Amino acid sequence: MAEPSHDRADDVGLRGRDLIGLGGLLVGAIVAGTLLGLLLDHVAGTSPVFTILGVFLGMAVGALGFALRVRAAVR
Predict the structure, then answer these.
(1) For 39-59, b where at least 16 C-beta lie within 10 A, e where not — what string?
(2) Could you give the 3-state DSSP secondary structure of residue 53?
(3) Who has the most CB within 10 Å: 33, 49, 53, 71?
(4) pLDDT tens across 40-57, in order?
C-alpha cells in the first residue's frame, strides 16, 4: 500500500490568505481598541488612560481571535 501524501492541496491548514487574514484580525483589533480608547478619553476628558486600556484590550481580543482561528484551522 502507498503512504498517504501530505502535500495535497486539500489538506487542512493555514495558507497565505489565511495568514493575511490573521494579521488583519490582529491589526484591526488593536486599531479598533485604540480608537475606542481615544474616543473615550476625549469624552471623559482624561489623557492616555482609556487609550492605553484600549490598546491592551485590542491586543487581548486580537490574540483570542487569533488563537481560535488557528485552533480551528489546525483541527
Answers:
(1) eebeeeeeeeebbeebbebbe
(2) helix
(3) 33
(4) 999 999 989 999 999 999
